[in-house]
Amino acid sequence: MIIRCLFVSSVLIVTLFGINLKSLFTYTFDVNKKYDMEKAKTIYFKNKCHTCHGDNAQKSVIGSRILKDMSAQDLKAALIGYTLDSSASATASQMAFYARNLTHDDMDNIIAYIKGGNFALDLQVQELLEEEPKQKTKHNTFLK
After folding, report:
1. Residue 68, CA atoms < 13 Å, CB-side half-sphere
2. What pLDDT score does 112 carry?
3. CB contact at 8 A, 91 and 25
4. What is the pTM of this model?
5. Are the C-beta atoms of residues 107 and 76 closer than 8 Å to each other?
């Protein structure tokens, strides 16, 4: 019963306010924001991200993925997760120390440095392409 109420409520919210359900479960970024790539680079280096992750976020730290290969949403989720997590592992506590000093704007700038200045626009284009129906074959069946 509770699940049904939550589902109906979410449909109602989407209908009334035009909210994209995907945005409720992932981080979204301002498409109109222009990132100063010099500032983004400065924030990346000032916060010593390059020490472990490399000058271009190309290095893999033990137990983690290469930042350059992660999506912008995953990067933001990881950074926010480190600010909320009080895990005892050495890597997590070190990352938590740095992440807790970052504002959301700093996080977005770091992501812009890693993913490129137009990353938010690229994400929006990707989402629009994902919403397109898949191509049909000549027999009118959908391709997987």
Report:
1. 10
2. 92
3. no
4. 0.68
5. yes
